[in-house]
Design goal:
The complex is a heterodimer of chains A (about 475) and B (about 200). Chain A is an alpha/beta fold. Chain A contains 17 helices and 19 strands. In chain A, the strands form five sheets. Chain A has a five-stranded parallel beta sheet with strand order 5-4-3-6-7, with helices on one face. Chain A has a five-stranded parallel beta sheet with strand order 17-16-15-18-19. Chain B has a seven-stranded mixed beta sheet with strand order 4-3-2-1-5-6-7. The radius of gyration of chain B is 18 Å and the shape is globular. The chains are: A alpha/beta (about 475), B alpha/beta (about 200).
Chain lengths: ~475, ~200
Amino acid sequence: MGKTLFDKVWDMHAVRELPSGQTQLFIGLHLLHEVTSPQAFQMLREKGLKCAYPHRTFATVDHIVPTECQDRPFADDLAEEMMQAIENNTKEFDVKFFNFATGQQGVIHVIAPELGLTQPGMTVACGDSHTATHGAFGAISFGVGTTQIRDILATQTMAFNRLKVRRIQVNGQLQKGVYAKDVILHIIRKLGVNGGLGFAYEFGGDVIDRMSMEERLTICNMAIEGGARVGYINPDKTTVEYLRNKPYAPKGKDFDKASEWWLSLASDQDAVYADEVSFDGSGIEPAVAWGINPAQTVGVSESLPQPEEAPEESKAILNEAYQYTSYEPGKPVTNIPVDVAFIGSCTNGRLSDLRDAAQVVKGRKKAKSVKAIVVPGSQQVLREAEKEGLHNIFMEAGFEWRKAGCSMCLAMNPDKLSGRQISASSSNRNFIGRQGSPVGRTMLMSAAMVAAAAIEGHVTDVRKFVD
Amino acid sequence: MNNIINKIRGKAVPVAGNDIDTDRIMPARYLRCVTFEKIGQYTFQDERFDEKGKPKDHPFNDPVYQDARVLVVGKNFGCGSSREHAPQGILRWGIQAIIGESFAEIFAGNCTSIGLPVVTAGESATAKIMAYVRQNPGAEVEVDLEKKNVSYGDTTVNVDIKESSQKMFLEGTWDSAATLMSAKDKIAETANKIPYLNW
């Protein structure tokens, strides 16, 4: 009987079975940021512990950084305190810290792939639920809490329950103007926000096979929004070529040896899955997650759902969404006006996302009523985008061009909604209050759809801009 | 061992609704801190107070539930962000066990690792417990981790808890650091066999 990639990677990293029945799992790559780690370092100090494998941990700063003025000390005292904490902690515990001066700072899930830190076959953990992102390389990658960060720092292992694997196939041909973001929102819409509980999602099929690494990162990034702690894609030629010449990837002959091993990790043809689902990619429209969770998604040509026609189990949350948003059931989603447009985040803050958005924006102007910001996912994305002149395209259209960080995805920094503002956002969560105003409203969509909404001042179909 | 947790008895506070995410439990702005110490007071902050700081109608504001030890919730509680600040806030508010229809995975794992048991009851059982604690504010509920049941009034219903978590609570080994560290040699042995660690 064949094995899935999940099984192969899991078994290789299993240290032992714990008395509780959990597995003690070796973590090959541990990523850190400033928000969830300070308490973990404090716990180490209190117990008099050291970092067991300091060179397997890499840190950056992303959540709290301002994206306008990054001069120190930060204007926000609490943000400055957290910045100093991660500077001191990484120094004291001998952990590599990608700060501003390195030119490699950025959203942790953007920088680890672009530096070649994330590689196939690794177990990757980070105190951040969007760690699933790194599964795009064929790694088993998941978010953990602060106490588990402590465990990983102290032992490079953690206790984990084995997951079942659901194979999700997307076949067919995507329409022009339909992006990876639309595919994953469509999947979450169909399988629900808790459909993935207990599962790792293995994404495959010819739509996924044809995707670039950056698109695959977008897909895996949102596995957690479907309840799956892990999402991954089997490594193939695209994966190998992406890693060639990346700073932390093996070089020369070592690279060839590594590639061979990476490719061997893909799920076997006769692997057995706990569940299999498939979708027709050609039927997927540009998507808008209009409600209060990412499953409350419609295609851009659709109207908002009628609660009375909704399945029984989703009625209550649908009514809650209408109560919170004040939108009207049955109205076309394109009627919804937009006050703020946000392009960025670990979901859609990579170079290809900025290119897609710039293609829509080029030669046009944003609507006067819209505040539009573009936040590159990393300093490297920013440099490359500027080399291509993307920043000029955005600025000429009236968009603000910012510095790298998490920005408005979660509003732990100065970028946030105010009052009842409605945002079109390329991020990953439209939860109540997510973007910083307890009564603000968020609609998730692809970076190109956000750009189109910024231009028209309301939700609109990006397909008319890209044909 | 003083880490053993087998029974939690106390007043129960109901927080109805499904898919209550960790942003709602602990809004992001309260994550700007380097310790968990003061975080309990911010639990459900934006659900409890409006923008002007005026208290809203929320069970955590209701005087009758102030010293509750058991929290009763719906489906997929704790979804979203992995922030341990959410369960830490709940724990520091005084909650010692959570009963719900289902829990998001990272949240449930975080709860176990800080000694806060979460147990799941079926849809109708959860609804009944919820109804009971709403109709009898201040009534006590008992969660028995060994027998895997919840008792209230004159009713006892079976609940589930992940086997590994149950074991860790009953044996007092939920604080995982010591257990993990005891395998130092096996950890090194495993690391030696992982190809990419030896390139």
